[in-house]
Amino acid sequence: xxxxxxxxxKSVASRVLHAEALxxxxxxxxxxxxxxxxxxxxxxxxxxxYLAAVGDLYRLxxxxxxxxxxxxxxxxxxxxxxxxxxxxVRISEEVGLTRPRITQIVDSLEEMGLAKRVKDPSDARKxxxxxxxxxxxxxxxxxxxxxxxxxxxxxxLGEDDSRELTRLLRKVAALLHELDGDEGAEED
Length: 188
Prior knowledge:
mainly alpha; globular; disordered N terminus
């Protein structure tokens, strides 16, 4: 899902987080409950606390996000997870970067030996991009490094909290995937 730089935070957040659909679902849940005993003020306080926690986490991981936003890492990860050759157009659509930026990134990755361009066997006019063995090794190394960091987080958080965090993150991701599917069905 691509968003322009001129999009307001509110409009992007509304689309990405499916604000209308979530509001409808939350309204149905609240209406079906006989009341959980919480006031609107308490719900507001909980929501503000959640948003503050997300904001704190965002500020702490911003340097990592900047590394990904430069594009090279994002494109390399995309190529590694899409092992079949793919087109620059498809990469652009999937990672949300412009085609000229994708061309620059692929040029750079190719110079480093991490990606390669090949002619499409079914259409010589098309060029496909794929990760090289060296590129796959770089991605594997990044994953190994990140896994070590996550394991340390799990140790510090403890087993129960780590599992609960994972469960909640999966639940949020599943809900957003479900809403993405619902949105796509409405657009057809």
